[in-house]
Design brief:
Helix content of chain A: over 70%
Helix content of chain B: 40-55%
Radius of gyration of chain B: 21 Å
Largest sheet of chain B: 7 strands, mixed
Order of helices and strands of chain A: HHHHHEEHHHHHHH
Number of helices of chain A: 12
Oligomer: heterodimer
Mean pLDDT of chain A: 90
Distance between the termini of chain B: 58 Å
Low-confidence stretches of chain A: none
Strand order of the largest sheet of chain B: 6-5-7-8-9-12-13
Low-confidence stretches of chain B: 14-26
Number of helices of chain B: 15
Structural class of chain A: mainly alpha
Number of strands of chain A: 2
Largest sheet of chain A: 2 strands, antiparallel
Chain lengths: ~325, ~450
């Protein structure tokens, strides 16, 4: 009876008793969710256009953030370092298309997936050689991102929102809106979607595979840079950032590998739900650290009922 | 560009070292391998430590021609702090090397049973399984100068001003990496909590949550502990310190173990981290003769891998790395003297590590006075229990913030004896050192 009470009653009683704390939990969950969604978006875009599961997305986040910080450390003004980093990410996208992807056209998906593992290993080694493995401070102030905080007192309590988190959420929303407009309204965006729908048909109407691949890898690089700035502002920039890519995997399982809106909603859902579960059920009942597995359990539960994820397309193959 | 130059120098140095090492093998030499982690999520912690270890040995080779005429071959095998890779590195290096330095409690626990068979000493300064202090049971394992249980005990002693009963009714949160390393001091904390009447609240941090500890710090906000004690490694330290700043947790009530005292992590928050404390069995002193010799023979000669722009030479971790290599080299020297041999083997080094006598006179002679407390090991005590100091971040660097603290040996010895007996029983048949009568 006591166990049932602690599962079904006490958590909700705690939420009602301290609504300011609940608001703080929801805010922290939203911030985490937005950041998970950003990483997941990088995966989705590349998968959507090329059916490649890009294992290198996590290390691209590290590489983009390190390039930005590294350029600034070498005397490049912060606001100039951003476009220069984008140039580096474009060169990387171009290089990947020319050296890795183009020779592997028409190879099975698993070969292309393995190639992205190779890209990951290359970027780890190359990044460590150039930038070293030390933790570096993100140039938050130099990028004119405010570092203060807003403090509210709702319900006679206390809620703290860091300005850099608000900027991260705002930036992510802007990026997603821009991306959706680009994908739905521009010619290139429609070409990306066409490739995702049917490679052969898209090629037959003159869409250039190589151009689109460079473009989506570059967009994934842009997303990686935004993600790297947002995460790096929290606890520095180091190769430890790579592990946050693992947080995107359950988001993809939940939202579906091909759905932009799935990545966003999946990211937000996982960010908020895992935080609520950890605080109100995980810590009191299971000793905490449930965030390492909760998202996977949630995603697997969804997969039991919808194997394609919440927003994924149901693939029917005639044999 | 500076990084590129460093990278080029590093590559050249590795190439030259490779050529030089084959030439050196023709001379009298001893190979000392290190299972390093300069890559991966824990690299920020590993790099300055490995640099300190490496530079001390390079300095000895350059200044003294090695140790008693024998060159020291310092070799690293990269593990990325992965237990699996660590075991592979152990297997790859055990043939040549006379020591294994596993650099992770997880790797240490994996190679512990192997060391009995391979007869190679494990040197795990300030880490590993705390019960390794029982030298009769763990004949091949050494964790001088202080164990994690020593560290936990000294932190409790410091925050209670020496009277642990004064902690009665207080709540202590234990923020730790969810890894064998982070869990290691829990038995001692639990025992102390039961004995002295304080509430002990473990808060684990998973590998994927190291940089986003908002849930853990929300729990801290809700529980309002009187103190937060941290057992962090790598990116977890920076993540925790930035969250503590964000949640306005009183910094002087936030205390870390010695691996949570990386200058680079605190530099991320600068002045906002003022007051944060960490227990440490090493004290940095860049003006000490040994550090000046390293500067002259290694750093100024362009052979060091340290990041001079960040001031790594002055960091606690870099200079702790120097102390770690000192312990190893003193073990080599003791064995050379005892066995009247220049080139010693692994079994002889085991004797040397078991008979370390790092007293004030020796520290003075080594140019390290005050950088590490005196300690000695024996066949029954493989830790030495040197004691430690509390360091405090002043906004730009760590400063000494206490006199030498000592651990509650009575409680720790009993726990270690029990832990060693349980380990031997679980891994039976486990050989013990019957010759040790201490």
């Amino acid at each position: 009876m006591e166990l049932l009470n602690s599962i079904l009653v006490k958590p909700f009683a705690d939420m009602i008793a301290a609504p300011d704390f609940l608001l703080q939990v929801l805010w922290e969950g939203t911030v985490s969710g937005v950041l998970y969604a950003l990483i997941a978006l990088g995966f989705v875009l590349i998968f959507k256009s090329s059916r490649i599961f890009n294992f290198a997305q996590g290390i691209m986040v590290v590489f983009a953030a390190l390039t930005l910080v590294g350029l600034h450390q070498n005397g490049v003004p912060a606001l100039l370092a951003v476009p220069l980093t984008l140039v580096v990410m474009y060169v990387l996208a171009y290089g990947i298309e020319r050296v890795v992807l183009r020779p592997l056209v028409n190879q099975p998906d698993i070969i292309l997936f393995m190639a992205t593992i190779g890209i990951t290993l290359f970027l780890i080694g190359f990044g460590e050689l150039i930038f070293g493995g030390e933790n570096k401070r993100m140039i938050t102030e130099e990028l004119m991102i405010p570092t203060g905080s807003f403090e509210f007192e709702p319900f006679g309590g206390f809620v703290l929102m860091e300005q850099k988190d608000i900027v991260a959420v705002g930036g992510a929303i802007l990026l997603v809106v821009a991306l959706l407009i680009f994908l739905n309204k521009s010619k290139m965006g429609r070409a990306i979607r066409a490739l995702g729908d049917d490679h052969q048909a898209a090629l037959s109407v003159g869409i250039s595979l190589s151009t689109i691949w460079v473009l989506v890898w570059f967009i994934a690089g842009v997303i990686a840079l935004v993600t790297g700035i947002a995460w790096g502002a929290r606890a520095g920039v180091s190769f430890a950032l790579e592990v946050i890519a693992y947080k995107a995997l359950p988001v993809l399982m939940l939202g579906g590998l091909e759905s932009v809106s799935g990545a966003i909603i999946g990211g937000l859902a996982i960010g908020i739900l895992e935080k609520l579960f950890e605080i109100y059920w995980g810590q009191p009942l299971l000793g905490g650290n449930t965030e390492t597995w909760f998202a996977y359990v949630l995603a697997l539960t969804v997969l039991l009922f919808r194997p394609q994820g919440l927003f994924g397309e149901k693939i029917i193959e005639r044999v | 560009m500076r990084k590129l130059i460093r990278a080029a120098i590093l590559s050249s140095a590795v190439a030259v070292a490779g050529i030089a090492s084959s030439a050196a093998l023709a001379e009298d030499s001893i190979t000392l391998s290190n299972l390093s982690y300069r890559t991966g999520p824990f690299a920020a912690t590993g790099i300055p430590l490995m640099n300190g270890q490496r530079d001390y040995i390079m300095m000895l080779n350059d200044r003294d021609g090695g140790v008693n005429g024998v060159k020291l071959n310092y070799e690293e095998c990269e593990t990325g702090y992965s237990t699996e890779k660590g075991v592979e590195c152990y297997e790859a290096t055990k043939g040549e090397s006379i020591v294994t330095q596993p650099w992770s409690t997880g790797i240490t626990l994996q190679v512990l049973p192997k060391s009995n068979v391979d007869k190679i000493p494990i040197l795990a300064p300030g880490y590993g399984f705390s019960a390794m202090q029982d030298g009769k049971t763990f004949q091949w394992a050494f964790n001088p100068p202080a164990s994690y249980w020593d560290g936990a005990s000294m932190i409790l002693s410091n925050i209670s001003d020496g009277n642990l009963d004064g902690l009665k009714g207080k709540k202590i949160a234990f923020l730790h990496l969810d890894h064998p390393y982070g869990k290691e001091p829990i038995p001692l904390f639990e025992q102390m909590a039961a004995k002295h009447g304080f509430t002990f609240l473990p808060i684990p941090v998973g590998l994927t949550e190291m940089q986003n500890q908002s849930a853990q710090w929300l729990q801290i906000r809700r529980e309002r502990p009187d103190y937060v004690i941290m057992w962090g490694w790598g990116a977890m330290n920076a993540g925790a310190i930035t969250e503590a700043v964000k949640t306005n947790y009183p910094m002087d009530q936030f205390i870390g173990i010695w691996w949570s005292s990386l200058d680079g992590d605190l530099k991320l928050v600068g002045d906002k981290g003022k007051g944060y404390r960490a227990i440490s069995w090493s004290l940095p002193n860049s003006e000490a003769p040994v550090m000046q010799d390293i500067k002259k023979h290694v750093v100024d000669a362009g052979k060091s891998l340290i990041n001079q722009g960040e001031g790594e030479f002055d960091w606690v971790f870099y200079q702790r790395g120097v102390m770690i290599s000192m312990m190893l080299v003193e073990g080599v020297k003791a064995a050379q003297e005892h066995f009247d041999a220049k080139v010693i083997n692994a079994e002889q080094l085991r004797w040397g590590l078991e008979n370390l006598n790092i007293d004030e006179a020796k520290l003075e002679a080594l140019g390290m006075s005050g950088m590490i407390p005196p300690f000695s090991t024996s066949c029954s005590d493989h830790t030495g229990h040197s004691g430690a100091w509390m360091l405090q971040w002043n906004g730009s660097k760590f400063e000494q913030a206490s006199d030498l603290l000592t651990a509650d040996r009575e409680a720790i010895d009993a726990l270690a004896k029990d832990g060693a007996a349980k380990y031997a029983e679980a891994n039976a048949p486990w050989p013990v050192n019957e010759e040790c009568k201490m």
